[in-house]
Amino acid sequence: MHHKAALYYEDVQVGDVLPEFTRKTGYIEWGRFAGANEEHVVIHEDDEEARKVGLPGGIGMGNLRLVYVQNMLSDWMGEGGWIKKVALQYRGMNLKNDLVVTKGRVVNKFVQDGEHLVELEVAAENQKGEATAPGQAVVSLPSRSQRA
Questions:
Q1: Domains of the chain with bracketed CATH
Q2: Other residues' Cβ atoms within 10 Å of the Cβ of residue 131
Q3: Is the dihedral of CA 72, 76, 79, 82 positive or negative?
Q4: 71 near 137, Cβ under 8 Å?
Q5: How far is the C-alpha of 105 from the C-alpha of 5, rounded, in Å?
Q6: What is the pLDDT of residue 2?
Q7: Calpha distance 36→5 (Å, rounded)
Q8: Can you state the angle between helices 62-77 and 27-37, rounded to 10 degrees?
């Protein structure tokens, strides 16, 4: 398995854009996520049941988009980073066969209680570029000044 080298705090600049993490989603992905999280809910698994409550069809779980944002952060940070916080607002639905494209941009970096922290604007978008789940994240990165 390939492991990405650690990203250091000193290598990050405000304005840096993270590589996107993209997945097409539908019942296979939602079913896998539901099984792993014991989150079997009919609106995520059955178009007909979802339509009964006024939805256009089955919809993806909000937390699946959260996981995709975390995947993007982990891929970017490599081995040495730690996700401290991710907060998303679910403002739109993830429909069957949509693409989920995660975005991230560094907006601040600071040292607090000895931790080297990076604050990011993050979002999960659909294939139309609509931010269905915008939010923020904070990650802790290793510092070259802390190397032994």
A1: 11-143 (3.10.129.10)
A2: 18
A3: negative
A4: no
A5: 20
A6: 52
A7: 29
A8: 90
Helices (H), the chain: 27-37, 47-52, 62-77
pLDDT at 17 over 60: yes
Q: Are 135 and 6 in contact (CB under 8 A)?
A: no
**Cα(101)–Cα(124) distance, integer angstroms:** 6
Contacts of 142 (CB under 8 A, 6+ apart): 6, 8, 9, 80, 81, 116
- C-alpha R_g of the chain: 17
The token pair that represents 110 in the structure block: 């600071």
Contact present, 36 and 64 (Cβ < 8 Å) = no
pLDDT tens digits, one per residue of 30-77? 777 777 777 777 777 788 888 999 988 888 888 889 999 999 999 999
Of 76, 69, 75, 68, give the one whose Cα is nearest residue 11: 76
Determine what percent of the chain falls in helix, strand and coil, rounding each to the nearest 5.
30, 35, 40
The 10s digit of each residue's pLDDT in 86-144 is 999 999 998 888 999 999 999 999 999 999 999 999 999 999 999 999 999 999 999 99
pTM of the model: 0.87
DSSP code of residue 56: S
